[in-house]
Design a protein that fits this description.
Helix content: 25-40%
Number of strands: 21
Strand content: 15-25%
Number of helices: 13
Structural class: alpha+beta
Strand order of the largest sheet: 16-12-14-13-19-20-18-21
CATH class of the largest domain: Alpha Beta
CATH topology of the largest domain: Alpha-Beta Plaits
Radius of gyration: 21 Å
Distance between the termini: 21 Å
Shape: globular
Length: 432
């Protein structure tokens, strides 16, 4: 047994790890598992979704081959262990990008589909599932099936299905045609939530990508930096790869505290305000700013951290977002990360997909025991009253009742689960 942790580093879990290295032998290894299993990739889910204590972890990183690319349609077929970093690095200089990408490139294709990831362009492109053409799925009964698009209910259950319907072996994704790897981007300062919603509405029809960082430490709350951009037409030579600074060890105490938060947030706001202008930016820092710091998760110390990400309906969204900011300030807890985005109207493909019409709010919190738990209870109440839901890929403690209320497709989804696949999250929220 090998101990592994999710990205939040909340608790290690012992697994029997089985590496899948080629598509021909993988189905047999999946079917021969003597205990419940779960496909794992780069372990960037924050909570207990990628953990299966005492069970099998099918390590997908060996299934990392690009299989085929159609330059007419943009259809890329690849194995599930290929990473978004691999795809962007290979195809962006050739005029293609992932149609949707989350805030880190260190995610496998299989994991991205299983969580139906969304990105800065949700208001234009929807989530990743809207661009998946086909999947090959291996189940623990030994069957291997090609799922051709959203007309297949198993396809819909697998997109956003948290890895519980089977093991994705390969996928075909319709890529996005671009001029090259550069983005035309601009930072806009906003002073409060009203200004955020105003800038977001103003940017919606003219910018394909948008997201906002919110300073959660200020009284009154809601000031921040709104980043918006498009794929650039002008394409200068690509820069050399930037150096990644890595957090070398886990400190004995969290570096995230009230003092460091105030210092960082004030400094970051001042820096961004001084640089607020339109500029050409390489896709890497535009899409993946946190990837510039390797193992940044370690700064939260040995107790780890949570990410709380919710989405609430757009109608009346200002009030719950404002109340969440207030509760966070009152608690004395908080994070460098406070991300707000107005989502699009495109309905997700997945039966259990998180993205939906509304406003999504994501924040990181150090694990501080009862204080953290008490804050989450208050935030849950705000989200539930607003008719919102939490993101399972980020979660380690959502109440079962909140999960059931937030995901109305749950009863339909259960019929497509693979009985030989289980996770800490599925046992916590679904009972098996």
């Amino acid at each position: 047994m090998t101990a592994v942790t999710a990205w939040g580093n909340l608790a290690p879990a012992e697994h029997s790890i089985v590496a899948l290295r080629d598509r021909d032998s993988a189905p047999g290894l999946v079917a021969s598992a003597e205990r419940p299993g779960l496909a794992t990739g780069l372990m960037r889910s924050y909570g207990d979704e990628p953990l299966n204590t005492g069970g099998v972890a099918w390590d997908m990183r060996g299934l990392s081959r690009l299989i085929a690319f159609d330059s007419e349609t943009g259809d890329l077929t690849c194995e599930a262990g290929v990473t978004i970093a691999d795809i962007q690095r290979t195809f962006a200089p050739r005029g293609w990008m992932m149609p949707v990408t989350p805030g880190t490139k260190h995610v496998t294709v299989g994991g991205a589909i299983a969580n139906d990831v969304h990105g800065k362009n949700h208001h234009v492109a929807g989530s990743l599932g809207n661009h998946v053409v086909a999947l090959t799925l291996a189940r623990t009964d030994g069957t291997v099936t090609t799922l051709d698009g959203p007309s297949d209910p198993m396809f819909r259950a697998t997109v956003g299905g948290m890895g519980l319907t089977g093991v994705i072996l390969q996928a075909t994704i319709r890529m996005h045609r671009v001029a090259g790897p550069w983005m035309s981007a601009e930072d806009v300062v906003f002073g409060d939530l009203d200004e955020f919603f105003s800038v977001s509405a103003e940017s919606r029809d003219t910018y394909d990508y948008s997201v906002a960082w919110v300073d959660i430490t200020t009284h009154g709350g809601g000031r921040g930096i709104f980043t918006r951009g498009n794929n650039a037409v002008e394409q200068p030579p690509a820069p050399p790869p930037g150096r990644v600074v890595t957090m070398p060890f886990t400190p004995p105490l969290s570096l995230v505290n009230s003092l460091s938060l105030r210092v960082f947030n004030r400094g970051y706001f001042a820096l961004k305000r001084s640089l607020a202008r339109e500029a050409l930016v390489h896709y890497d820092p535009f899409f993946y700013p946190l990837d510039g710091i390797g193992r940044w998760d370690r700064m939260y110390g040995p107790r780890g951290f949570h990410q709380y990400q919710c989405v609430v309906p757009s109608a009346g969204a200002r009030e719950p977002v404002s109340e969440m900011l207030k509760q966070i300030r009152v608690s004395g807890l908080g994070s460098f990360l406070g991300v707000l985005k107005v989502m699009g109207d495109e309905p997700p493909i997945g039966t259990m997909s998180f993205p939906r019409e509304g406003v999504t709010f994501a924040l990181d919190f150090p694990e501080r025991g009862d204080a953290t738990a008490a804050l989450f209870v208050r935030l849950d109440a705000i989200v539930s009253e607003a008719g919102g839901r939490l993101y399972a890929a980020k979660d380690a403690r959502m109440p079962k009742e909140m999960f059931e209320a937030g995901y109305p497709g749950l009863d339909e989804f259960v019929a497509y689960r693979d009985p030989g696949i289980s996770s800490e999250m599925s046992r916590r929220l679904m009972g098996e």
